[in-house]
What we know:
The structure is a single chain. The protein has helices at residues 21-24, 40-49, 84-89, 141-144, 160-163, 171-174, 223-231, and strands at residues 2-6, 9-14, 17-20, 58-59, 66-67, 76-79, 100-102, 108-109, 115-116, 122-123, 126-132, 148-155, 158-159, 181-188, 200-205, 210-215, 241-243, 265-270, 274-281. By secondary structure, the protein is an alpha+beta fold. It has 2 domains: 2-64, no CATH class; 70-281, Fumarylacetoacetase-like, C-terminal domain (Fumarylacetoacetate hydrolase, domain 2, Alpha-Beta Complex), CATH 3.90.850. The N and C termini lie far apart (37 Å).
Amino acid sequence: MRIANIDGRLALAAGNGYIDVEQASGGAFGADPQAVYDVWAEFTNWAARLDTSGHPVIGVTEQTLWGPPVPRPRQVFAIGLNYHDHAAESGLESPAVPPVFTKFPTSLTGHGQPVALPADTVDWEVELVAVIGTRCDYVDAADAWDRIAGVTVGQDLSERGLQLAGPAPQFSLGKSYRGFAPIGPELVTVDELPDRDDLEIGCALDGGEVLQKGRTSDLIFSVPQLVAHLSAVCPLLPGDLIFTGTPSGVGGARKPPKFLRPGDVLTSWIEGVGTLRNTMTAP
Length: 283
C-alpha cells in the first residue's frame, strides 16, 4: 500500500493515480493525512478490502501539490553517523550507541516543494525515514517491523555553519530551517519492498552528478534496533518519524567542500520507495 498527501488530502495509490480516502470510505476516514496514523490498523484493514475500481482516480499533474505524507508528527528522531563510511568521512569512530538528535516538525515539506537556502553551507543527507504505526513502549527489535506503518524517502538538509557552531554544536537547530526535512512523495508499507533491510539509497543533482549512493543493509543500527533503543527511553507515538542516517558522500566532508546552491534540483531515491525532488532557491 502507498499513501500520499495530495493537495492537503489523504490519498491512496491506485493504478496511475490516487483515490481520495475520505470520499472512498464514506467519511469513515478523514481527509487529514496525519490523523490516519492514530487508526492505522483499522485503515490498513479497510484499504486491503477496498475495490479501487469503483472510485474516481485523481491523476498526477504538474499542478499537483505534494505535502509530506506525515505532515505533523509529534516527535521526529534523527540518527547521526549510522553508516560506517559516513562516520569515517566525518573523521569519527563508528558509534557504539546511536547518536540521536531531532529535526523540529516545522522543517517538514513535501516532494516538489522549493527549499530556501539560508546560507552558502547547506549540505545534503539522503535518508530512509521510518514512520511509526503503533505506539512503541519498550519494544523488542524482533517485534519492531510490525510497529512500523511504512517508510518514505527523506533529506536531512543541514546548514553546517549553524550546526557546527561552538562552543556546543547546534545539530537540531542547524537541521531545522524551513523546508529542511523534505519527505515523500509517498509512504510505502514494507510489504511493497523487495527487501525491507537492503535497499539502494542515493541522491544526485539535476545535472546527473551522483552525490551519494549506498545500501540500507549497511546501516550500523537497523530500523528494528533503532525502535528498540528509542522506545526504551521514551514512547514512540503513531506518526512519529525516524530519520535513520545517511551514507557517505556529504558535501561538507569533500575536499574542497561542496554545498547546495540556488537553482540546484536535488533528487533523492530509495529502491522500491520512490524519488523525491526539491529545488533549492535563494533566501
